[in-house]
Amino acid sequence: MDAHHILDTEIHQASALPRTLATNPEILLMDEPLGALDAILREKIQCDFYRIHKEHKKTTIFVTHDLHEALLLADRIVLFSVSPTRVLADIVMPMSGNHIPMLEKIDLPDYIEIKDKLLELMRINAARLL
């Protein structure tokens, strides 16, 4: 992939959320919307999404394979197994209702406890595939 194509992809991804919100949907369906972005742009858009989500309070289904991203952005995390697909965890994030700045969450004991629990479930599930 050349640099021009990568930049086009990043610009397209960065502009997708405002374009989607302009249509005022009741539910946002986002399937790995930040997966193709570099780390700096990804963090910026995560912060923008977090702010917009808190302001507009849209129901959003956000699919990601990035646990850190899920922990930062989610009000609720549903973790699925690989195969057969089943729910491994369904966690309502205890810090979702308050207005803690997104990047400050990573130091909270609740965040660390949930992250460790989900990582352990992911490891167990991955080991079953080997």
Sequence-ordered SSE layout with sheet pairings:
Blueprint: H1 3-22, E1 27-31, H2 39-56, E2 59-63, H3 67-73, E3 76-80, E4 87-92, H4 109-129
Parallel strand pairs: 1-2
Antiparallel strand pairs: 3-4
Structure notes:
The chain folds into 2 domains: 1-63, no CATH class; 69-130, no CATH class. The two termini are 31 Å apart. Helix content is 51%, strand content 16%. The chain is α+β, with helices and mostly antiparallel strands and 130 residues long. A hairpin with a 6-residue loop joins β3 and β4. It is built from 4 helices and 4 strands; from the N terminus they run αβαβαββα.
Q: Specify the number of helices.
A: 4
Query: Helices and strands, in N-to-C order?
Result: HEHEHEEH
- Structural Rg: 16 Å
Shape: globular
The domain count comes to: 2
Keywords: Transport
Organism: Acidihalobacter ferrooxydans
Protein name: ABC transporter domain-containing protein
Family: Belongs to the ABC transporter superfamily.
